[in-house]
Design goal:
Cyclodehydratase, Immunoglobulin-like, mainly beta, 3-stranded mixed β-sheet, signal
């Protein structure tokens, strides 16, 4: 196996980690809930790097619903921007974005759909249900320096027949069980490094709560 020279290994690891650490995907406005995400970037060479990221979600749901009644909940991510460069290193793009939400409590999902979204690249976004979670997948790619807005996720639900509340939040409790993932492409010297990143909300607040009654 051919071993890269030390002077190549160190810039690749350091620059990839630096670029992801400073990947400021912060919301452009504060109309909704701003979530603090704990993230970990795993460059192919060097140790994993942890960092914080802010993501905004504008969530809407009715205040109340009758037992067994129908309701819709919408989680709309706010605009974000991928930096074009960080400390002299280019961020080429991000891709394979997934955003997960657990199935709401005290309700049955009858349908899920995506609407809107802009600047998200040529891939077609999809929504699916897997392992008790609703999964939004956005292939991208989204170029460095570009602003984008992920599609809004609308869940059609049937409320439970007893009391309580229908609550929604984002998924994720650790780096190994994330609610948000993506891969960044960072050109370093003569190669482009793919850096997978996993994030989870910390803390993880309730985004909507609809009382059943």
């Amino acid at each position: 196996m051919t071993q890269r020279p030390a002077h190549l290994r160190l810039p690749m690891a350091g620059a990839a980690a630096l670029a992801l650490t400073c990947l400021a995907m912060s919301p452009a406005s504060a109309a909704g809930t701003t979530l603090d995400m704990a993230c970990q970037a795993s460059p192919p060479i060097g140790s994993a790097q942890t960092f914080d990221l802010s993501a905004g979600v504008d969530a809407s749901a009715p205040d109340t619903v009758t037992p067994g009644g129908s309701l819709s909940v919408t989680l709309a991510p706010e605009p974000m921007t991928v930096p074009g460069s960080v400390s002299g290193y280019t961020v080429k793009s991000i891709k394979n974005i997934t955003l997960k939400a657990p199935l709401p409590t005290n309700a049955t999902l009858t349908g899920a759909r995506l609407t809107g979204g802009s600047g998200i690249g040529s891939g077609t976004p999809t929504v699916s249900v897997s392992g008790g979670e609703i999964v939004m997948s956005v292939p991208g790619p989204i170029g460095g320096g570009r602003s984008f807005t992920l599609p809004a996720l609308t869940m059609d639900l049937t409320a439970g027949t007893s009391g309580g509340a229908v609550e929604t939040r984002l998924a994720g409790s650790s780096y190994s069980s994330p609610g948000l993932t993506f891969t960044a492409s960072v050109p370093i010297l003569f190669v482009t490094v793919s850096v997978p990143t996993a994030c989870y909300p910390s803390p993880n607040p309730v985004l909507t709560s609809t009382a059943i009654g």
